[in-house]
User: Fold 3-hydroxy-3-methylglutaryl coenzyme A reductase from Nannocystis punicea.
Amino acid sequence: MSGFFRLGVDGRRDAVAAATHIPRDRFAALDPGSLDLGSADNLIENVIGTLELPLAVATNFRINGRDFLVPMAVEEASVVAAASNAAKMIRAGGGFFARSDPPWMIAQVQLTAPRAGEPAPQPAVAAIHAARGDLLALADSAHPRLVARGGGARDLLVRVLAPDMLVVDVVVDCQDAMGANLLNTIAEVLAPRLSDMTGWTAGLRILSNLADRRRAHVTCRVPPGALAGRGFSGAAAAAGIASASRFAELDPYRAATHNKGVMNGVDAVALATGQDWRAIEAGAHAYAGLTGAYRPLATWRLDPEGWLCGAISLPAAVGVVGGATKVHPAARLALEILGATSGAELGQVMAAVGLASNLAALRALATEGIQRGHMSLHARSVAVGAGAQGAEVDLLVHRLVESAEIKHDRAVLLLHELRSESR
Ligand SMILES: CC(C)(COP(=O)([O-])OP(=O)([O-])OC[C@H]1O[C@@H](n2cnc3c(N)ncnc32)[C@H](O)[C@@H]1OP(=O)([O-])[O-])[C@@H](O)C(=O)NCCC(=O)NCCSC(=O)C[C@@](C)(O)CC(=O)[O-]
Ligand SMILES: NC(=O)C1=CN([C@@H]2O[C@H](COP(=O)(O)OP(=O)(O)OC[C@H]3O[C@@H](n4cnc5c(N)ncnc54)[C@H](OP(=O)(O)O)[C@@H]3O)[C@@H](O)[C@H]2O)C=CC1
Assistant:
């Protein structure tokens, strides 16, 4: 869908409707105000309105040989352009290759010693291990329909965190749901039994957002020619990107920014498709720090032929059922446009968009710098913020980019000049 961005909003809706076979009139779900106040009032508490964000579609994504139009909701200019841009380069190498771990999440029950100063965790640990089968069956009894769908409790581990504190981790296959509510129920069902059998006190009963058993793994291989740009060769860009990856692997200060670039894409897909983005953020950063040092989520290497090879593993606690996926009309349509049929596939798309977002940013940073591409698109929101309307927006953007000072005060001044000239 080359040139998709040059169409107007209506033209883009026509193109997406034609590509997805979703009836054109359904796109009204993306009109302003489609989340009515009554529904909003039922989604959260103390509602006084709704907050709208632009919803866009990223192009060029081919994952495991299948084409996706990827809905993204974000307030930052250039994020969608960057993802589409990098996906086009990656497509030149055959696209993204993705696989998923099983949809396993962890429910935690905290247990504390009955009497301070007399800790003896071993008998409690032994009692829990001995009852493993019964405890897994009890967990399954909380969700018979999940078990019927092929999900349910898979494993149970006991870890001694301190002489007077244990945690029981129950691994649960939650199929196509994000799983938080499912797992919290299981933790609450197990807690009294664990307490009875050990004599220890049950504390917190909640899922863990470190979804490291449920990762999406995505790789890609990009021919250097696809990375060439204004005034730089593909080989130079590829080498610069591999070096940028090493920088992030060696320095947590850089890794944080590197991962911000990854999350530009991941969060935008999460928001558009009605996911719990706080859970995804928490999981991603906890995973990035799991080895003790904070690490980049996506890495890049040159292979012997000089192609650029990228890889990402992302905890993917996402679902195509439950949460807000059925309540928010725009999220519902976004999921339909994406056409992901399972939570695992949605996680793979998110990881692919994270990898693409990272590639676009690193390519710009390692060559011409971020400002040309990013700031020229950011200039549009600066122009609107300064009060430009209709045809004034393009004219003001042009002048702002020419002035190389894309700032609010400058935009107000240039808009004033523009209006005086046309009087
Ligand atoms: C901004 C571009 C894409 C321009 O890139 P360009 O070279 O001017 O683009 P092009 O005209 O050659 O077009 C190439 C493709 O890009 C897409 N594209 C191109 N323009 C548009 C547009 N207006 N709207 C939508 N899509 C666009 C589109 O897919 C197009 O293909 P086509 O449709 O022509 O076949 C490029 O410079 C770029 O990728 N820059 C990176 C920008 C970026 O990473 N932004 C994120 C914000 S910065 C940040 O938050 C993170 C950071 C940087 O700190 C992370 C880090 O440090 O690692
Ligand atoms: N720390 C955190 O991250 C926390 C997050 N949350 C919130 O929890 C919500 C997510 O919890 P979650 O349990 O996913 O959501 P829900 O409870 O909304 O939905 C899951 C339910 O969907 C039904 N279902 C239908 N089809 C399937 C399928 N194919 N696979 C799996 N389940 C299916 C199941 O119910 P049935 O079997 O009865 O049909 C299942 O219990 C989010 O809103 C999140 O914000 C809440 C607390 C803490």
